[in-house]
Amino acid sequence: MHGPDRWLTHLLINSGPSDPCLGLGGLFLDHQTIPPSFVSLFDSGSRTIQTNAAVRLRRKRFRGGFLSVGLSIKGGSDVEVMGQNGNNKSLVEEEEEEDHETSSLSLCNKEEDKVKVKVRGSSSGAFNVTKHLWSGAVAAMVSRTFVAPLERLKLEYMVRGEQKKLFELIQTIAASQGLKGFWKGNFVNILRTAPFKAINFYAYDTYRNQLMRMTGNEETTNFERFVAGAASGITATLLCIPMDTIRTKMVAPGGEALGGVIGTFRHMIQTEGFFSLYKGLVPSILSMAPSGAVFYGVYDILKSAYLHSPEGRKRIQNMKQGQELNALEQLELGPIRTLIYGAVAGACAEAATYPFEVVRRQLQMQVKETQLSAMATCIKIVEQGGIPALYAGLIPSLLQVLPSAAISYFVYEFMKIVLKVEST
Fold this sequence. Notes:
- The protein is mostly helical.
- The chain has helices spanning about 5-15, 35-40, 90-145, 150-160, 165-175, 185-215, 220-250, 260-270, 280-305, 310-320, 335-365, 375-385, 395-420; strands spanning about 20-25, 25, 55, 70-75, 80, 90.
- It folds into two domains: about 5-85, no CATH class; about 130-420, Mitochondrial carrier fold.
- The strands form three sheets. The chain has a two-stranded antiparallel sheet with strand order 1-2. It has a two-stranded antiparallel sheet with strand order 3-4.
């Protein structure tokens, strides 16, 4: 063995793990013990070699390379490594290339994570919208089924122009059609009101929150509540009025002979055209815009007033104490107050917009040959029965709206908690 080889072998054999010459991942040589002849093996081309040098042997993984020897000598040159493809690259070049690859890989991973988060957020948002819509739909199904008999009485007064007293009309329906006669058309009513209420509730919450973000307010103002309610009523009306027209046609005189929903739909398309499904659209919008504004605005105002009261603040504080609460206990207003506020909101909305509802129903009953405008229809109703004719059936309508609105809001708030609907 040559002198430097013997010296290196002796150093590796006799040095222990705690020897300062050996470090993790390499061999560090002290400048006082390194022979000049050993340094010259690695940098034979260097004219000036100083004894103050540090040589480190370490394993480094290169793409297609072998075990590398890194030599750091003050005033020395770079050490080259031979790759499997036969190309010579300096250690610095290899490290820069690996750093570049690592940086690129990290960037790709970050972009992939962003895409995953975006896709996950989109999926979660769509699922939340579905749960929100289902909350409104279930509320409509439960409330409409519960008050279907009162709805039937209201339509008898509005559409058929019944002059009988309320209890006489109840006896007539029960004698002629039996108990199921009070739920006549309820399935169609659910098909109409379920999507209508689903869209209505969801649109209101969405419009209200968007208006609050646009104005930068911490809380929705009363004006924003009324605007959001009106917009939600218009949105739901535009999407759902065809089913409402079909239902009205079915319960009108002669509607039994048309053969249910499909038969009535086919009959109207064949005899009056597709746009006959949108008869009464203008008075419907004129009715639903203020109705939605009052219905949602009044409820939200009452709810906000309670939550800012000392009793409301105390209730919210108790709810945040970390105790396990069931869905009923998580209602911000509580079950009773939710029912009461819903009933009040429904009664206000019905009383404020009932004349529009009467005109709309009459328009939906007209055939194409004798169809009148909304204004002409309103004048005709007043001429035949006076101003009270615009409020025909208001009492049974209020009797229907009070429990319907109360149950609707209660079930809606309850379902949002059960389904864990997030604020839009």
